[in-house]
Amino acid sequence: MLAGPTTNQPFSLNDIFQWEVRTWSRAYPMWSKALGSVVGGERRALALGERDGGLSLLLAQHGFTTLCSDLGGPTDAARELHERHGVESLVSYASIDALAINQSDCTFDVVAFKSMIGALGSKEKQARALHEMHRVLKPGGILLFAENLQGSAVHQTLRKRYVRWSSYWRYLDARSDMDLFSDFTNVVARTTGLLASLGRSQSQRDLLARVDGLLAPFILKGWRTVVFGVAMK
Q1: How far is residue 122's CA from residue 169's CA, in Å, rounded to a whole number?
Q2: Which one, 56, 197, 212, 233, has the greatest CB density within 10 A?
Q3: Does residue 8 belong to any structural domain of this protein?
Q4: The predicted structure's pLDDT at residue 1
Q5: pTM
């Protein structure tokens, strides 16, 4: 049986994953099981690139004392989210640059990010950020990650035309970029997504994600749009 939240507060994948939820929330069973395996000690967690605080909610609901961070600090919506779910006593807030995490070595049991390192713009910076995450993890600590993939040629063309941040975002290649996690001793990764990212509304993306689920055995790995997983220090 997979581990679930340790609090009695209402649980919502929408509040945790926040956009294209059906696609990105496919990470939840793996992540929840990994969080359930962390026992003893202070159970401290760091969530990076948080903005509206979704991953911090996930971590706090699993009983972790969580530092919710973003480059310019999380939004007021993050605080409101945590208060609404009754986990505010477990969450603190900070401005943190993933390229130079202002925390001591071996501080956290868990570090988590979602759709963040693409914004760093280069593989060199992405590698530096992952090295920093590895540094602040305790021995045996885990990294929860989910990131955008390049997808098919169609995805790449449409992004150049319609996605305003595509000029600087570096999408990962699931076949050639897993070396970014070379600091870690064990990495388990899965890929998902194809059509859902093309939806123009939440309802369209949800419907297309259902279709993606049916097509999953037939979707080429190089066409998929999301990679997620768990890495251990």
Answers
A1: 8
A2: 56
A3: no
A4: 29
A5: 0.93
